[in-house]
Amino acid sequence: MNRVLLPVAALLFAAGFTVAGAETLQGKAAFGDWRQDRPGQSRLIRPSDLPPPGATRSASASPGVIQPPAGAMPQVPAGFKAERFAAGLVNPRVLRVAPNGDIFVAETAAGRIRVLRAPDGAAHPTLTETFATGLDGPFGIAFYPPQGEARFVYVATENAVLRFAYRAGDMKAAGRPEIVVPQLSPETGGHSTRDIAFSADGKRMFVSVGSASNVAQGLPRRSVEEARRYESSRAPGALWGDETDRALVLAFDPDGKNRRIFATGIRNCVGLAVQPAGGALWCATNERDGLGDDLPPDYATSVREGGFYGWPWYYIGANEDPRHQGARPDLKDKVSVPDVLIQPHSAPLQITFYQARAGAPSAFPVAYQGAAFVTLHGSWNRARRTGYKVVRLEMRDGRPTGAYEDFLTGFVRGPREVWGRPVGIAVAHDGALLVSEDGNDTIWRIAPHS
Length: 450
What we know:
The chain has three helices and 31 strands. By secondary structure, it is mainly beta.
């Protein structure tokens, strides 16, 4: 097992981070599985660590989701406490907190947006209301403008973007939504979650659209010349056929006009977030299946405008997918490498940057300010289970080091059973961290505890 001592462990602990064993798993050891998971355990996967395609057989190991065992609690770092904040929801997915502190929850399978209200420090909501119903797979939620008093609540459905007029404190929509983007792609099906975020200045609206398939197996073949002619009016790596306007991030003006492609080759950017320091757009991304247990890593990354991230022809840089061998040699040297590689098949879903307002009663230690947290929904295409946890991306001066650290673990009960699958994540008005999970339809609250 390849392990490297972290020289800054003592400093991190003093600043508010808990480091378990003061070591980072690297190389082959970093791939691991749920048995190494514990709060504070760090991993670092580099592109040079990847095995060849097919080094192991492709597995199918969907988990059995069980009721929480008696007394079961998620594990969090020393100095923190996790408690069940809400239960009885229906497929709770994305969480977003309104400027006034109300918690908006996308109950995707139920086609509705729910609002929870809780005073600062409360262990449970004191008021629950349905904001909107009859929506087509609602997922992403965003408030506009992103700074100051919000006037609209935007909702990304499976193939459209809507917005509701909003005033601070509204727990029910005042009227029918306005259709801002009537169609995101000409084809539906496949990955159906769409997230939405606004640039810090409010001038651009970003929408993520996942692929229609695992690896574009049915993509009509085009010569390099034909593909490049097609891309000339769109973007390098833009796809056609059933994958038209899929596996990318789109940008619009806030009113839905001036549509353009922001970045391509991102198989399924389930979660979008704008980093407060510097305004970079980030994606939490599910990579492809079928190449073995340890290939390719999922990832979280800042997304460069005009960037191409490989899908379906390449992964994690210039690694060619054997199922598309020789199809696009012209793109090999144009693939952007993601910032943080995550254990393969862990299924990153949402990402948030920790920011607590001054004086927030449940604020994390100051060292967490600006930290990025990512929910990992958990594997099915891996013989050795991974994910089912929340991780923190390690940053130095606001830039990712490539390593990440387990923050919330404990949902896996053994090789075949789990009792929680994290999805949404948001910072509450009082500074606590909220995590939704759709295995048993609950929301958890994590806050410092003396």
